[in-house]
Amino acid sequence: MTSANLMGKIQQLKMKRKAVILAHNYQRPEIQDIADFVGDSLELSLCATQTDAEVIIFCGVKFMAETAAILNPDKMVLMPDKNALCPMAAMLPGELVQLYRKKYSNAKVVLYINTLAEAKANCDAVCTSANSAEILERMDSETVLFGPDWNLAQYAKNHTKKHVVSIPKFGFCPVHILFNKEAILKLKEIHPDAEVLAHPECTPEVCGVADFVGSTSKMYRQALVSKAKKFIVATEVGLLHRMKKDRIGAIFIPAYEEAVCAQMKLHTLEKLYLSLKNKRYEVKISPKIMTSARNAVEIMLRTRETLD
Ligand code: SF4
Question: Which end of the chain is more exposed for a tag (fewer CB within 10 A), N or C?
């Protein structure tokens, strides 16, 4: 089947199933182009709560689809490829959170949205890169355990009075760790008029040389409103597709061309078609994990409202 045929069939099946297609900013261009909504993990989860569709096809990694399922217990959430797992989220399984809880019995636990549902169910609050400091401050303990991203923990440490302990000791995103401060400075020498946009999962050194640091959607919005006409982008290369499409005439330079999240790229048009056709692969979460994880996620959503 050609891509055009596949796209036609996907549109037909989408209507038949009363489905909505959500795609993360790092998805393949053709998946972004056929999606109803493209955004970061938080935006997509919120989007899922606002749709009246009966089926949500989530083109992203598992923790994202799980968050959509947690917030939409009455809807069917499907992933075109069930093996799309975030390696950083996998660094902090639920059992490890429990072990840290025992070790630091007086500490509260705040987890980044990039965690599996089983980990979220064992924490006190979930946060995004935008509200991590504010949520940490709200915890009624001197010490707060924070994970799984060490880089984000450093950022949060610099913005709160809390004693922040990273769990695990050095969790990281294998894609954002690839960016290098010297390489970005060299690009900046070649393109002195370019604005550097970086994701907070990059190292503090990389964030330190960026003109703007924010989630993928914040980077995207900055690229639309900035006076600059050239951008050096330090995040997964998938985001550049959306930026180029919506800011015609501007130049977008990847800070590292090989910054590709292989897990995000597992979803293809063919798998999306099969997912709609066969109603696969459904994201299922046990009722116990669902209730605890939902409480922690709702704290994140309430705090987000005060920030926007
Ligand atoms: S880019 Fe990093 S944090 Fe995002 S899904 Fe891939 S491995 Fe996980």
Answer: C
